[in-house]
Amino acid sequence: MSTRGNPQVTFRLDRETRATQREASNIPATDTARYAARVNLQENGATAEEIEYLLDQRVELNAFTSDALVAWLERKLVEHGVKKVIPDDATLVKAYQRAKEHAAVQTLINEAVKARRESAAVSAVPANLGTWFERALNDNPERAWDSIVMEVAGSE
Predict the structure, then answer these.
(1) In the chain, how many domains are there?
(2) Which of 86, 102, 134 is the last residue of a domain?
């Protein structure tokens, strides 16, 4: 089943995450700092149990390997029943129009490339290309060689 809109999913700290991704919280032991942290956690939907845990420990998603993070996130999405989001009609219409435009432009590009390759097959390469190339490279040794070739090809 797919859903429309942008549903919000909250991921809770599970035992697996707490056990594998924790470090000291580094929240200063002052009452003011702990109070501010507690308020911030409450405002962001943490449970009382999570607040107590996070005042002393922190969970570092960076500590996950890439594969482990993806697996954990996918498992959480399945647990919460998250499905693909179907864009609203206006977004679908814009995306369709953009795709049609892209396809038409790509067809024009393909035709132009084919025509250019056909004409390039019969184009003569300048007899002095090597000399011109060496001179240009000596004048500017930091220059990329392919930009020199592009300049020669474009100047004809």
Answers:
(1) 3
(2) 86
CA distance 124 to 100: 38
Place of tokens 């999913």: 9
More confident residue, 48 or 33: 48
115 with 148, same domain: the answer is no
Token output for 149: 């070739």
Q: List alpha helices for 28-88, DSSP H.
A: 31-43, 48-56, 66-79
Tens of pLDDT along 6-30? Answer: 455 555 555 555 445 445 555 655 6
7/81 same-domain check:
yes
For residue 69, count CB atoms less than 10 angstroms from its CB and return exposed for 0-12, middle for 13-18, buried for 19 or more.
middle
Are 53 and 17 in contact by the 8 Å Cβ rule? The answer is: no
3-state secondary structure of 134: helix
pLDDT tens digit string along 56-110?
A: 776 777 777 889 889 988 988 888 888 888 899 999 999 999 999 999 999 999 9
State residue 91 phi and psi, 5-degree precision: -65, -40
